[in-house]
Amino acid sequence: MHLIDVTNNYSDLVQSQLNTTDANYVKVYSLGNTSVIYTESKNAIGIALENHDRRVREDEVEFIINRLIKNYDSSYTLTVDKSRHVIEIHVDK
């Protein structure tokens, strides 16, 4: 799996996140057909995985956790919608 930084393609989304939330850092990645939105504030990290074509796979979730939050010892919370097309990961700092 390859995590590709596509933040420049989503400048409106990034500006919206920075202006309407307490996030001070936003990145958007592509993991094949799955989009990954990484937001960081002074208190928490939020990661959303979204795939409109199919369910988000468990190995994709594990890959993202290992790549993006491996430096944090605290636990994380997963929120999964019924269709598994959107998964959110929340980490308190």
What would you note in describing this structure?
With 93 residues, this protein is an alpha+beta fold. The protein has one domain (1-90): Streptococcus thermophilus LMG 18311 protein like. The chain has helices at 11-20, 58-68, and strands spanning 4-5, 25-31, 34-40, 44-50, 76-80, 86-92. The protein has a six-stranded antiparallel β-sheet, with helices on both faces. A hairpin with a 3-residue loop joins β3 and β4. It is globular, with a radius of gyration of 13 Å.
Q: What labels describe this entry?
A:
93 residues, DUF1827, 2 helices, six-stranded antiparallel beta sheet, Streptococcus thermophilus LMG 18311 protein like, globular, alpha+beta, LMG18311-like_sf, 23% helix, DUF1827 domain-containing protein
Q: N- to C-terminal separation? A: 27 Å
Helix content: 10-25%
Proportion of beta-strand residues: 35-45%
Average of per-residue pLDDT values:
94
Q: Treating each run of at least 4 consecutive H or I residues as one helix, how many helices?
A: 2
